[in-house]
Write a structure and sequence with these properties.
heterodimer; A: alpha+beta; four-stranded mixed beta sheet; 8 helices; elongated; B: five-stranded mixed beta sheet; five-stranded mixed beta sheet; 27 helices; 18 strands
Chain lengths: 165, 637
């Protein structure tokens, strides 16, 4: 990821970012939208990307950084190829989602908020994906796994490990 | 589009929609007037999509083609409400309610039921609709649906969520037609005011008053906003409306724009709701194409347009001023009020903000009138309320009931009671701003004021049922973790208060609580309530205060006896092995992650191997041993 420190990712990524800034800069309140798009391009928001956005909009870096760190959706660190998100909303919590999270952490040997060394998985917790009928749930990427028990976790993760081989 | 063209679309598809709304015999008669022998509605809401309803639809279309059936209409709708039984599929005109569908089940239904002359496959139906004598009860007559009254959810699970013509045929955009052709802005506000509609987002402020303040504010530029930042964990009412009937929100916002003199609206929606966002985008695009948004709506001279703004995961942005700050592109911190948004809101202009469910009530109020609407509900809370039933309850899902329905009816009649024979302990309403209602208050008629009187609040409509296995101290701690995490940090009482309350609760759940901690909690809670800047901090102590008032014994038990009755607080638990029951198989010791279990010398009478014991000094109380013991020899006390 070192190359990110010097410039904004690949040439295509940089071009895509510039296009987003150009298209949105005149819309009032566009910063959030640009950050969301930028995170879609890069997977996270490294400092050079934030600097570029600040310059593009003619605002200070501290303002950009302030917004990035305020919202849970924005990440300063890269995420895994498979983003695991364990729901800790109330409906899931009372049905034992904390134990699901523990199991995922144990299985991957990392803590919530971290990324595995091979970059295959990262774990986050979230507050309600709205699939309360299936509580407890976790998401891997866009896929929702519901009515979970700790013993189902390994099988699900193994499936993703297998798929990446 | 003109009014005439709108009416023509409505007429064109009216009968198709009617088939889904009429009782069986009439529906069968009506179906003969349409091009479709049968209609199959499959839920495409988040709940059912998560249980793979997409595959159900794909398989359905494939099998129909294979069987050469072309007079069956397949419709992807929004939520039917009974999320726990998803994916759900309803076949009209019979109204056959199939639950937990798999591709194999779909195949069976197509070949046995949907073919000409086919019959309902009873064994795949939602079993509440099958009478013991073999006859089929309409699903509207089952306990889950019978006591419900669907106003806000009237079109959810009835229409194709991505088809504006179905929405029009189901009644959407009839109210904007009525408003623009026959009502003045003052007429509209009076109707909403007289209906008694109160904001469904939590606080219950009268919607009509909000609108009249905004209308009275001077200025050429005003805004109408929709709060779809449903942050209360365990609540999914607004999401379901957006997924099932997005046009009703667009229409209602346009009506409000006309009433207060605004021409631009914003919908602030959670990015965590991808299906809702997608349907909204489709709906806005279609409404513009049909001339129902944009310049000169219906050719009647009124301009109004709507844009979407995505949230980025901050609970505080559900607070109105914070939401507006966020739309402006800043950190979503609340602003002091006054000035209220109706005077100085988004971009400093007069603004009204209502939540999705509030908007969903506007069309029926305009069409059926304030007198009709205000005849439903209680004296000070009119209409219905949608609740997201969750937690320890059989029928997890979405329900809409008249205000004044008792908690008992919701939990036991509609919700089907508590599963696994457990005892009801409390119902949590209002999420992180609300409180817990104990068993002795279960007959309270639910409305805005009654809930506040018994120490909770309506909130947005999350209703989480707790059974005997839930520890009330732990639940309070859970909510404080949430509010401490979500506090924006702008004002001190909230930023530090939530943290300190959480510290005190953590101390108690770890068995380190001291007698004076309860007084400290109460004093701190009062300071937070009176001095926090916004509702997040003002209401953050509510879960603690309400459980402290209703379940004080449980707190005292943790402090004085170091005991957690529900067996949740790990630090207070002790795992032991009953040496008489232990057969010495060693499964517990083998699976113990910290090697805290060793074999003893004792062989119980009738057993061949020596029993095991747990070293409490090493035990981390993970409970793995208990899960692995087939002989129920591991006890948790």
């Amino acid at each position: 990821m070192e190359h990110c420190e010097a410039k904004c990712g690949t040439a295509e990524q940089e071009k895509a970012l510039e296009a987003v800034i150009e298209a949105s800069r005149s819309t009032p309140g566009c910063l959030m939208h640009i950050l969301q798009e930028a995170q879609g391009i890069y997977g996270y928001l490294p400092m050079p990307v934030q600097k570029k956005i600040a310059e593009g909009l003619g605002i200070s870096l501290s303002e950009v950084y302030g917004v990035v760190t305020f919202y849970a959706q924005f990440s300063l660190k890269p995420k895994g190829k498979n983003r695991i998100s364990v729901c800790l909303g109330t409906a899931c919590y009372v049905k034992g989602s904390d134990k699901i999270l523990e199991e995922v952490e144990k299985e991957l040997g990392i803590k919530c908020g971290e990324c595995t060394e091979d970059g295959l998985f990262s774990i986050d917790s979230c507050r309600c994906v709205g699939a309360c009928g299936l509580a407890p749930v976790m998401m891997v990427g866009d896929e929702v796994y519901g009515k979970l028990t700790p013993d189902k976790v390994k099988g699900i993760l193994d499936g993703y490990k297998e798929a990446s081989k | 589009m003109t009014v005439k063209e709108l009416d023509a679309i409505r007429a064109k598809k009216q009968q198709i929609i009617d088939v889904r709304r009429l009782v069986r015999e009439q529906a069968e008669e009506m179906a003969k007037h349409t091009a479709y022998r049968k209609q199959v509605l499959v839920c495409g809401g988040t709940g059912c999509t998560s249980s793979h309803s997409k595959q159900v639809i794909e398989h359905l279309e494939k099998t129909l083609a294979e069987c050469d059936i072309h007079d069956v209409l397949v419709v992807k709708t929004g939520c039917f409400g009974l999320c726990t039984l998803g994916p759900i599929m309803i076949v009209y005109p019979e109204g056959a309610f199939y639950a937990q569908m798999t591709p194999e089940h779909v195949e069976t239904v197509v070949r046995k039921h949907l073919v000409p002359g086919g019959e309902i496959v009873k064994e795949l139906l939602f079993q509440d609709t099958v009478h013991p004598d073999g006859s089929i009860t309409p699903f509207a007559e089952t306990p889950f649906y019978k006591k419900q009254m669907r106003i806000a959810l009237r079109n959810c699970g009835v229409i194709a969520a991505e088809d504006i013509e179905e929405a029009i045929a189901a009644g959407d955009y009839a109210a904007i037609e009525k408003v623009l052709t026959s009502m003045t802005p003052d007429d509209v506000i009076k109707e909403v005011l007289d209906s008694g509609l109160r904001g469904r987002g939590g606080a219950g402020f009268p919607t009509g008053r909000k609108w009249s303040f905004a209308k009275a504010s001077a200025g050429d530029v005003k805004y109408v906003c929709c709060n779809a930042d449903e942050g209360d964990p365990g609540a999914f009412m607004d999401r379901s409306v957006l997924e099932g009937d997005p046009h009703c929100v667009l229409e209602a916002m346009t009506i409000a724009g006309y009433a207060i003199g605004a021409h631009q609206g914003y919908i602030y929606v959670r990015a965590e709701y991808p299906i809702a966002v997608e349907r909204l985008k489709i709906a806005i695009k279609q409404a513009r194409e049909y001339g129902l948004l944009g310049k000169n709506i219906l050719g009647l001279g009124f301009d109004f347009d709507i844009d979407i703004r995505l949230g980025a995961g901050a609970f505080v942005c559900g607070e109105e001023t914070a939401l507006m700050t966020s739309i402006e592109g800043h950190r979503g911190e609340p602003r002091p009020r006054p000035p209220f948004p109706a005077v100085k809101g988004l971009f400093g202009k007069p603004t009204i903000l209502n939540n999705v469910e509030t908007w969903a009530n506007i069309n029926p109020i305009i069409m059926k009138g304030a007198a009709w609407y205000s005849s439903i509900g209680t004296e000070k809370s009119k209409g219905t309320k949608v609740f997201a039933l969750g937690g320890k309850i059989t029928n997890v899902g979405l329900v809409e009931v008249p205000m004044g329905t008792t908690l008992r009816d919701i939990i036991y009649e509609i919700g089907g009671g508590i599963p696994n024979g457990k005892a009801f302990k409390a119902a949590q309403t209002g999420g992180p701003s609300g409180g817990c209602i104990p068993a002795d208050l279960i007959d309270t008629p639910i409305d805005f004021d009654n809930l506040v009187a018994i120490g909770s609040m309506m909130g947005s409509g999350g209703l989480i049922v707790l059974d005997e296995d839930s520890c009330m101290v732990d639940i309070s701690k859970f909510y404080l973790e949430f509010t401490a995490d979500e506090s924006c940090g702008k004002c001190t009482p909230c930023r530090i208060g939530t943290r300190r309350l959480l510290d005190l609760l953590t101390k108690i759940t770890e068995g380190k609580g001291e007698p004076e901690d309860l007084e400290k909690i109460e004093a701190l809670a009062q300071h937070m309530k009176t001095s926090s800047l916004c509702a997040l901090g003002q209401s953050a102590p509510n879960p603690v205060l309400s459980t402290l008032a209703k379940f004080r014994k449980e707190y005292e038990d943790h402090i004085y006896n170091h005991h957690c009755t529900a067996g949740v607080c790990k630090a207070l638990l002790n795992y032991t092995i009953d040496k008489e029951k232990c057969i010495g198989c060693g499964m517990c010791a083998k699976n113990c992650p910290v090697s805290a279990i060793t074999r003893t010398d004792y062989v119980a009478p009738g057993h061949k191997l020596a029993s095991f014991e747990i070293d409490p000094a090493k035990c981390i109380k993970c409970g793995v041993c208990q899960g692995n013991c087939k002989f129920k020899a591991v006890e948790r006390k």
